[in-house]
Prior knowledge:
Blueprint: H1 2-14, H2 18-23, H3 31-45, H4 50-54, E1 56-59, E2 62-65, H5 78-85, E3 91-95, H6 101-110, E4 113-118, H7 121-129, E5 137-140, E6 152-157, H8 172-175, H9 180-183, H10 191-203, E7 204-213, H11 219-225, E8 230-236, E9 242-248
Parallel strand pairs: 3-4, 3-6, 4-5, 6-7
Antiparallel strand pairs: 1-2, 7-9, 8-9
Helix pairs in contact: 1-3, 5-6
Amino acid sequence: MPRLNAEVLLAHAVGCQRSWLFTHFNEELREVWWIHYGRYLHERMQGKPTQHITGVQEFYGREFRVTPDVLIPRPETEHVIEAALTLGARKIIDIGTGSGAIAVTLALETGASVFATDISPAALRVATANALGSKVQLLACDLGSALASSGFDLVVSNPPYIAERDKSTLQREVRDYEPEVALYGGDDGLDVYRRLVPEAARLLAPSGWLVMELGHTSGEAVSAMLGAWRNVEIRNDLAGLPRVILAQTPKGR
């Protein structure tokens, strides 16, 4: 990982793709490249995430802009996309969209009508810049409160799930540089789930689906919140940790 970071920062200093470094390994670095590279390395050594230095992060094969106003998209969140793509949804809402990575990816991959909400206007500005030609409709609100009606086939979310009591255990890159509103879900990390599950039930059409990312210790507690829902399933990530939970609306909806 340190070598990869160094290569990414050097490519950013040069203004090229990382692959260029391997095809031009004999080329002498220009002075201006060294100056930029030195600055980037200094920032990284202070704990600043590489993605905040380069301003981009790849997600599901596309580059998304990132700033300190949004959570940096993680590879683990691609499991949310993979789960959602199996459901055939035509009307989707992404709650707490942040950079817009989930909403934009689903819009481009499925052609569905996609809405996305976030409580942070600054995050929505980043999501707007990340549209990538999609027609995601962005709304500033708490959860889905701006939407009075139901009818969605799919509610998807990567909610804040880190327990505030665990803040001191986080890596400096996360704790000091990413937005707290996107990280912490109350003292036990479950506060947003407690509100999101009934909100999803309100927004979903009969037989609609809820797909949420999980913290590695939150699967059992979130499953309990979905006691009346059907077809509840937890899927693990590549490390074998619980990462995504799926559930279909309760009977009688």
